[in-house]
Records
---
Amino acid sequence: MRITLCAVGRMRKGPEQALVDDYLARLARTGRSVGLGPADIVEVDERRGDAGARLARALPDGARLCVLDERGRALTSRDFAALLAGWRDGGAGRAAFAIGGADGHDDGLVERADSVLSLGPMVWPHMLARVMLAEQLYRAAAILAGTPYHRD
């Protein structure tokens, strides 16, 4: 199952970008054996008009949609891995994860989501949310592959 991270805002080169690149490279390697990945990133410029509508248009057709939102469900890493495995095993060829800008997501996007997840009750800058999501995607692949990366 291919994965797309759709995010409002552009990430500049720096430590956050290096971490995202590292975790997505790990996902590509580890996920191959369990049918997850690779992942790509689609960025929507937040400075131009209606970023929410552009984010919705950037989502891949037919993808299972997960919206990251502070009001969403908080999952354990194992539960997140099980969610991805369920989508994969249910025949989903793509999964898309939407990370909103400073004003969050359009209500219509949240309503059409297959899952609304929270990275915790705190609000995170979109750059750190990308890092945390990329790490959890890699961790999910590691859990499904049975590697020792994740410890309960």
Note: The domain at 2-145 is CATH 3.40.1280.10 (Alpha/beta knot).
---
Amino acid sequence: MQPLQVIRSKTVVMASTNIDTDQIIPARFLTVTTKEGLGKELFADWRYDAQGNPNPNFVLNQPQSKGSQVLVAGKNFGCGSSREHAPWALLDFGFRAVISSEIADIFKNNSLKNGLLPVVVDEATHAWLIGNPGADVTIDLSTNTLTLPGERRIAFAIEAFARYGLLNGVDELGYLRSKLADIERYEAARGW
């Protein structure tokens, strides 16, 4: 997992509400156990027509979306079934953060464990972002702030351990492994 501190990017807006994990990555693509290549299948049923050709009307297929690292999504993003493939696909496509006024808990937890930053903002900020696609934003995880054009700063909350993991590019297992010497000393002192 890559460390994440600051993201500077234009936004891509998908204003639909209740975008579920099956829309993010359809179930037929869940047979893989690796993250690589899933970005090609991100929103597959919306991005491609029945013949597999890119839908030019879908936002991720439009030139202004290329290179964006921040997805602004409608309310209740990531609802539905739990699947790590959803944040994997978003990351493989190039996104580093998702912003919404509401992000489903299971999706949020899977995202944090895999290096995708879920940012929950208030309704007014969310409405501004939805209404201003392509806005230049800065997300600073070291200060837990989202900066909008005009230097307007919005604070967002993130659980402390998840924040530590993202800042340091380490997941739960990686964190435990970094404490191996301490664990071995503890066990040795107890005769285990």
Note: The chain is about 30% helix and 20% strand.
---
Amino acid sequence: MTVTTTRLTQAAAVATAVAGTIFVLVQINHPPTVLASATTTDWFVRNAAKTVMAVLALVGFTGIYLRQRAKVGVLGLAGYLLLGMGYFMLFGTEFVATIVVPTAAPSAPGYIGDVIAAAFGGKPVGDIGPFMTVFALTAVGYAGGGLLFGIATFRAGILSKSAAALLAVGNVATLSLAVLPSSFNRPMAVPTGIALIGLGVSLWRDQARQQTAAVTTTAAMPQPAAAVR
């Protein structure tokens, strides 16, 4: 199989759509984000899925940015870098939640409980080191990057405008979780997941249109006289 720009972009489209699907599915019947959940199989499976989701989303955002880089300008680049930072930090925290938290919870329940509380907007009782900074940077990248990248994608007009707008609004809306009850945590993540699915499907269709246009153009080109027998 020849690796072409089209195939790489299609792979990014699939990665984006799968990331969005995972992000929606893991919200369904999510266990309480408390210490007691940290050692369960459900916790491990969901956080492992979120870790994969973060990697796939990074691949997808890269493909989306490269497809529209000529039209999104500095705003799109800033949004891509900021959003990429947010998802990279998200990957790190989800990896820790998957591997470290279940292992350390039995021996350091106070510390792990504080980390879990801080991750979801609560106030830790003790010192959790740099985790507060990590969570803050993740929030800035996720919300701010989503806003800028969504606006840039909307303005570029290459991919679905409704999905781009939903990404911008959905990501920024998560900042309201700081004052909303914890029951809003899961529903507030769904719009972003749907936006990712929409952007992935739109990117795939865009590549299909480009391929069709290329074939049509080639077929319409006049053949050299020597080729006509």
Note: The chain is about 75% helix and 0% strand.
